[in-house]
Amino acid sequence: MFITSYSARLDRTKVTNALRMAWQDKNHSMKVGIVDVQQYTDAIWNLITKIDYFIHINGTNPEESGYTQPKDAELTKHLQTAGIRGNVCSCKGLRHHKLYLNSGKKTLNHTAVQGAIKSAWLDKNNETKELIKIIEVNIKQAGKARRKRAAVRGSELVDSNGDTVFPIDYTVAVDGQEANHLYITEPTDDEIKQRLQNAGFKDCECEPSKTGTVKLKGQTRDDEKENLKQAIAEAVAAANPDIKPEDLDVKILDIKNNIKDDKGNPISSVHYAVSRKDGETVEAIRHPSDDQMMAALKQTGRSLAGTPDPAKDEGADWQAPVGIVCAVLAGIFVMGIMAYIVKSRRHRKRKHFKQQQRDEETITPSPRKEFDSLQIPSPNPYQPSRDGHEDLQNSSQHDYERLRHPSEHSHESLQHPSYEGVNNLHQSESEAFSNPTYEHNPSPQEFELSVRM
After folding, report:
1. Residue 204's CB: how many other CB atoms inside 10 A?
2. CATH code for the structural domain at 2-89
3. pLDDT tens, 378-387?
4. Is the whole-model pTM more than 0.85?
5. How far is CA 340 from CA 253, 333, 336, 352, in A?
């Protein structure tokens, strides 16, 4: 049975009771026992738990007696009722192996470590060409990217001497499966350590600690260490709900007081290490956030560098939201006034433009209407004379001038031209036909018309 979680503190009694409830049979005697609990990992390095157990009903295997194994959902329900985290799954994984190595360097050659572990397995099983092909050692390599925080800048694992320790998570597969001990012999821990030592790596044989750094305002005295250790333990526990402060061991590794911030104010850098007392892996510890660290430091009277002092910050808690609300209301008020001003100006301009149009229509009549009201007789094109033609031009020019300057002539005279002017125009046309000095070349149409007449 596989469970999608792992804990070194797994309560076997609770697991046994949950299995008994899942296989419950009131009519027959039942015996349940845990054979082994091992830490496995799936293909993407998620830790899972493999539980080997046995169950007898009336002294026989339940499957031989016609019993069927409970479904995963039924087993999960009883395990979670018993307080066991995780779900029962049909997972496939490999056994998880763990080492902590010292290399004396800031980096670790994972390829060399992988080769040393594989050599230990090959040595134990009489190395052959076929065995070299089917034995595979996979090593988990931690991601290079790390989340940056103001309170904790980077972290690493160290031993009790403060030397850097590298965690090694690896699996061994034989032809893609977990090694079958009937055919493959697993090397002992000492044999693997010897191979690693030959390659330049040493097993630290320690319970490593996870380090972190926190920068505080002002100088830090030696007599403040105990208070700081307690505050750091509480902050780490707040970031890891499954850990209690009493399950952590905090050590102050170094304090640097000769530091100043960007403004020249004195600050101190406190380098610390956290280890676990509950048997779980220390790598699983998450560093506290700035808020969690500040909350824990509050009782010590200290504050993080680059943040307001606790005493000043308490009195200013209400100022920030009030200031934001006031700024928003002021912005809305200003925008409303601006919108009103723009709308008023547009309304005045539109009203002024319409009034101007009405005034122009009242003062200035339409030139086309005035021109259409004129009754200008057309001269006879068949009997033109020079004088008549000039009179016609003068009359048309005179009317045109009257249209251009309506203020100099009355509307009445434009609408009712004098009959005297018209008679004079006809008389001028008659005289033009009798005047031999004016030459007129009629067009073919005119000539044809005159012959017919």
Report:
1. 20
2. 3.30.300
3. 444 444 444 4
4. no
5. 66, 11, 6, 18
